[in-house]
Amino acid sequence: MARRVVGGVGRAAGVGGVGGTTGSGSGVKAARRPEVRLPGLEPFGGGELEADGDYDGLDFREADFAGQDGGGARFMDCALTGCALDETRLLHARLLDSVLTGIRGVGTNLAESTLRDVELVDARLGGVQLHGAVLERVVVRGGKIDYLNLRKARLKDVVFEGCVLVEPDFGGAVLERVEFVDCVVKGADFSAARLSDVDFRRAAELGFARGVDRLAGAVISPAQLLDLAEVFAAELGVRVE
After folding, report:
1. Looking at the Swiss-Prot or TrEMBL record, what is one Pfam family this protein matches (predicted)?
2. Buried (b) or exposed (e) across 111-122, using 16+ Cβ within 10 A?
């Protein structure tokens, strides 16, 4: 779609089952959240990441992995806290049953990676590449992510909670049981995306740049519908005067 349509929606208190994952009788399937219970962890011994490395039960704390290549690496039962991931290459990596807290970086490459049973907390990321990735039972809580690239990714049981997403790109992605809770979404692109049981009702702010014609399978609140009226009208080519 060549033209650009922009909309912003503020949250209306008491609408859409606030206080639970879904509204009563809404028929929207709730996302299954991860239940990560880390074992006793061993401190990471230092050094650079290794391509195809196997990291199990490790505590990565304030590590600087900027510019390193951990493509194909597997992280299982790990905690990454305050780590720097600027331009870190983690293509085809697998993050399983792990908690990432306060990570930061620009240009982190997680393309075609797998995140399963992962909590991402208070991240500060820009231009992170997750195109073609698979996210299953993932919670993104707090923090801010600019220009998140999820093109052609598969998201199942994913919750964005209390975070800020600036111009996230879901183009061509498949989203199933995805929730946006108390988060700010600015300029989202859903071009060619496929949605099923996607719940926007509790978003604190909701704005679309492209792809509003692909929102079948999503649910919004009555207040959001009113606020998005001009966006939907623009998509239909209707003038509002």
Report:
1. Pentapeptide_4
2. bbbbbbbbbbbb
* pLDDT tens, residue by residue, 63-121: 999 999 999 999 999 999 999 999 999 999 999 999 999 999 999 999 999 999 999 99
In this prediction, residue 11 carries a pLDDT of: 43
Tokens representing residue 41 in the block: 């962890």
- The amino acid that residue 172 corresponds to is G
Q: Is 76 exposed, middle or buried (0-12, 13-18, 19+ CB in 10 A)?
A: middle
φ, ψ for residue 27, nearest 5 deg: 80, 5
Q: For the beta carbon of residue 19, count every other beta carbon within 10 angstroms.
A: 7
- Residue 51: which of 67, 33, 71, 36 has the closest Cα? 71
Nearest CA to 150 among 130, 134, 165?
Answer: 130
Token output for 192: 């060619």
Distance CA 186, CA 206 (A): 6
What distance, in Å, lies between the first and last C-alpha atoms of the chain?
Answer: 24
Task: Tell me how far apart the alpha carbons of residues 201 and 185 are, in angstroms, rounded to a whole number.
Answer: 12
